[in-house]
Write a structure and sequence with these properties.
about 5% strand, mainly alpha, 3 strands, three-stranded mixed β-sheet
């Protein structure tokens, strides 16, 4: 009995250390989530202050209805996903930390049906679920940290220097949106999966890309992307993926005859 006591204490000590590591990790995760919420709210507040958020848009009800179904299909996730219409003729959408998704009026006017909208929102939700947005935020933090260190060493910094969150949330400087080519492909595929899970036709992403190609060529709809894959490249890639994946066999590449999300 005496010889087993040290082993017991050793096991208890190891368990305590393990529990401490788990609790520390949980605390760090909560802190990261709080930071994400703060940053996402900062993006929203910045857009709203500039009059870019369209509260009374006729597209808002359908955007949130489809968005809520996509968000439910993507669960579990810690964030509460929020969907907003913003002004502008650009065919563009982007996701921000903490579950914020912003869609330009131009994109909503371009979309012909809810299947296309579901795939666009699935793509943006995928960026959040896959951690792409957070990864870019961390990259931005490191860049800002090194910049501020450089200013301090050269005497050009100040006590009131812009912090990481301010730098990342300024309109027109959303550095966390510079997704890589592989991140775009991954978001296309998961977005189609989420759309199908929510009851929408995953071929909607192909129909949207086809319309996009017709309107703006190969520029793509996410204008803040580095290593940007062309629209035709993404169309061909996702079409092959849908055709070759058994889970999508019940869905047909036949777009509905609707023309627009809301009545003129």
């Amino acid at each position: 009995m005496i010889t087993t006591m040290p082993r017991t204490f050793a096991r208890l000590a190891a368990l305590a250390v393990s529990l401490g590591i788990v609790l520390a990790a949980a605390g760090a995760a909560r802190a990261d989530q709080s930071d994400d919420e703060t940053m996402g709210l900062g993006v929203y507040d910045d857009l709203k202050a500039k009059g870019q958020v369209v509260e009374g848009s006729p597209y808002l009800p359908i955007l949130r209805r489809v968005g809520d179904r996509l968000s439910a299909a993507a669960r579990p996730h810690w964030f509460t996903e929020r969907f907003y219409v913003i002004r502008g003729n650009q065919i563009n959408a982007f996701s921000a930390p903490g579950g914020y998704v912003f869609v330009n009026e131009g994109l909503l006017r371009t979309i012909n049906n809810t299947d296309e909208l579901a795939n666009v929102l699935g793509h943006e939700t995928a960026h959040l679920v896959l951690g792409h947005v957070q990864a870019k935020v961390e990259q931005q933090k490191r860049k800002s940290f090194l910049t501020n260190i450089g200013k301090a060493l050269t005497g050009k910094g100040s006590a009131g220097a812009q912090n990481t969150f301010d730098a990342a949330t300024k309109i027109g400087n959303y550095s966390f949106l510079n997704f890589t080519r592989q991140q775009e492909y991954a978001a296309d595929e998961l977005g189609a999966k989420l759309a199908a899970k929510a009851g929408y036709n995953p071929w909607g992403t192909v129909w949207f890309f086809n319309e996009l190609g017709r309107l703006v060529g190969d520029a793509g709809y996410e204008q803040y992307v580095q290593e940007h894959p062309s629209t035709s490249e993404r169309t061909d890639r996702i079409a092959r993926y849908l055709h070759d994946t058994a889970a999508f066999a019940r869905w047909k590449n036949r777009p509905p005859t609707t023309t627009g999300l809301v009545s003129p």
